[in-house]
Automatic annotation (TrEMBL):
<protein>
    <recommendedName>
        <fullName>N-acetyltransferase domain-containing protein</fullName>
    </recommendedName>
</protein>
<dbReference type="InterPro" id="IPR000182">
    <property type="entry name" value="GNAT_dom"/>
</dbReference>
<keyword id="KW-0808">Transferase</keyword>
<dbReference type="Pfam" id="PF00583">
    <property type="entry name" value="Acetyltransf_1"/>
</dbReference>
<feature type="domain" description="N-acetyltransferase">
    <location>
        <begin position="16"/>
        <end position="181"/>
    </location>
</feature>
<dbReference type="InterPro" id="IPR050832">
    <property type="entry name" value="Bact_Acetyltransf"/>
</dbReference>
<keyword id="KW-0012">Acyltransferase</keyword>
<dbReference type="InterPro" id="IPR016181">
    <property type="entry name" value="Acyl_CoA_acyltransferase"/>
</dbReference>
Length: 196
């Protein structure tokens, strides 16, 4: 048994697309989110928000048609999440692309492989919806996230020098893209090449 299998022995890992969340799930998710913010954030928030504000935030996310929430569970409890953001209907020119954003796992649930599973499930859903590209951006200080995205095939195409302001410091951000194969129609490679 390798180290990761040993670590995972007896633990249950799951990622689901959430269409509704119970009160208990919302409380767990708020706790996980604040724990990740306190540990260093890296996914938008800088200051812990408190349970009530985060529960309102997640209830709001579930109402937005272009946002899909993916929740990671360890032993059944929400410990992290990510968003798949689809282009609005008026953006026909970019309907082929979607964005992965706001991805994090609570510090107490890291190292089990949940973030990898989260990104893979989100990609599967994006491909099933017909998207050909996933875009994402990340602060250049988020070394673990960068290692994860690069190992999953995301291509770094640019760096924004003034990407974020965090605790009085300007932080650069790395921009990534990955092509997907929706499994129907022309291959994404052929589609992209035909435009050149
Ligand atoms: C990035 C993050 C989501 C990873 O969560 P995780 O569940 O621990 O990640 P996983 O267990 O799925 O590991 C994924 C990869 O991350 C890397 N990794 C995980 N833990 C690591 C550690 N302690 N040190 C270095 N690399 C590590 C490995 O490359 C691992 O790949 P492997 O599957 O080949 O071993 C988590 O660290 C986090 O929430 N960070 C803060 C928020 C953030 O940076 N979000 C990204 C903004 S979009």
């Amino acid at each position: 048994m390798n180290a990761s299998a040993l670590l995972n022995a007896g633990r249950s890992l799951a990622v689901e697309r959430a269409e509704r969340l119970s009160e208990a799930d919302l409380a767990d998710l708020a706790e996980a989110t604040d724990a990740a913010i306190i540990e260093g954030g890296g996914f938008g928030w800088v200051e812990p928000q408190g349970r009530a504000a985060l529960e309102r935030h997640f209830r709001g996310v579930l109402l937005v048609p272009e946002r899909e929430l993916f929740v990671a569970r360890l032993d059944g409890h929400p410990v992290g999440s990510a968003l798949l953001v689809r282009p609005p209907r008026h953006n026909e020119a970019q309907a082929f692309a979607a964005t992965l954003t706001h991805a994090y796992i609570a510090p107490y649930a890291r190292g089990f492989g949940l973030a990898r599973l989260l990104v893979e499930k989100l990609e599967e859903r994006a491909a099933a919806l017909g998207h050909r590209v996933i875009n994402l951006d990340v602060r250049e200080t988020q070394a673990t996230a960068i290692a994860l995205f690069e190992s999953l095939g995301y291509v770094h195409w640019g760096t924004h020098p003034y990407y974020a302001r965090v605790k009085g410091q300007t932080v650069a951000g790395r921009f990534y893209a990955k092509t997907l194969e929706p499994g129907r129609g022309r291959s994404t490679g052929a589609l992209i090449d035909s435009a050149n």
